Amino acid sequence: MNFGIIGTGMIGGFHAKAIAAMTGGELIGAADRVLERTQAFAEQYGTKAYDDVAAMLADPEIDIVTIGTPSGAHFDPAMAAIEAGKHVVIEKPLEVTTERIDQMVAAAKVKDVTIAAVLNRRFHPGMDAFKKAADAGRFGKLTSASAYIKWYRDQAYYDSAGWRGTWALDGGGALMNQSIHTIDALLYLAGPVKSVQANTACLAHTDIEVEDIAVAIVEFENGARGIIEGSTCTWSKNGHPARVQLSGTEGSVFLADEAFETWDFMNETDEDEAIRAQFMQGADAGLGANDPTAINFYQHQRNFEEIVNAIQEGREPSTGASEARKCVELIQAIYKSAQNGGEKIELP
Description:
Layout: E1 2-6, H1 10-21, E2 26-31, H2 35-45, E3 48-49, H3 53-57, E4 64-67, H4 75-83, E5 87-90, H5 98-111, E6 115-117, H6 125-135, E7 142-150, H7 155-159, H8 167-170, H9 174-190, E8 193-201, E9 213-220, E10 225-231, E11 243-248, E12 251-256, E13 259-265, H10 270-279, H11 298-313, H12 321-339, E14 345-346
Parallel strand pairs: 1-2, 1-4, 2-3, 4-5, 5-6, 7-10
Antiparallel strand pairs: 7-11, 8-9, 8-14, 9-10, 11-12, 12-13
Helix pairs in contact: 1-11, 4-5, 6-9, 9-12
C-alpha cells in the first residue's frame, strides 16, 4: 500500500524510515505547511514533495496517510484525509481529547476507512513475551501494575517550538507527550482502569503551561493497584528506561524499555530460562529518555505492518482508534483529578 506523510519534522523522519524498511508499504510522498521544508525532506528520503497537503490528498495513488504534526494539530489533517477517502495513521496521541477522537472515528466510519495510532512500544519481542504471560494468567491474581517514566527534557527543548508545553497543541506535559506510550503498554498488559487519584506540578521548567511531573494512584478493574509516575525533570547521565511492572500472587515481571529486570514465576515453563537469557540485559540507558531522537524506528515498522495487514484483512488493527483512545481517556482523568485537588475520578 502506498503511503503519504503529513508533517516533515523529526516524527516524519521516523515514519519515512519505517515505511522504507517495512513489508507491504511504499512511501510515495510528503507534504507540510512549508514547501521548502517538504522539498528538503523529500530529497533526504528519496520521495515526492507535494505542494501542499490538499495536493497530496487529491492523489489517487495514496492509500494511507501518516500524520506527525504536533499532538493538538492532528484533528484537521486527519479529518481532511478521511474526507479524501484515505486510511489514516496518527502519531501518539491520536488526539489530545477523547471528544476529538470520537469525531474522527465517526467520520472514518462514514467513509469506511481505517484510523489507527502509532503505539510503537507494543511492538518489540520483550513486549510479545510479556503480553503472552499476562494473557495466559501466569501472574495469578494481579495485585500490582505500575508505570514509571522518569525522563528529562531541558528548557531548550520546550523553548525550541512555540507549541511545546501548551495545552492546546501538546495536550499536556510529561504524561500526554512523553509517557503516553508506556501508559498504553500498562493498559495493554493490565487491562482497564477503574479510578485514579493524582497530583501534578511543574517543578523544573519555566514558561510552559503543563506539568513536568505527575504521580497517580491507579485502581484497575481487576482489583490491582498501581502507580503511574511520569516526568521530564528527572535527570540522569544516560536516561532512565521507561518501566512497566506487573506483579501478582504467582509472578512478577519488570520491563525496562525492551529488557527485563525481573522475570519470575511460581510455576516455571520451558520458555522462561530462554526469555531471561535473551531479554535480561542492558537496560542501563533509556530509549528517548534524555534525547527524543534516540528512538528505534523498527517498532514503528512493525506497527505500520500490522495496520497494513489489518486493512487488507478487513479487520480493526491492534492499534486502532478504540485502543488508542484508552490511554488518552486515562490521562484526561489523571489531569482532572490533579486539577481538583487529587479527587478520585471514576472512569466510564
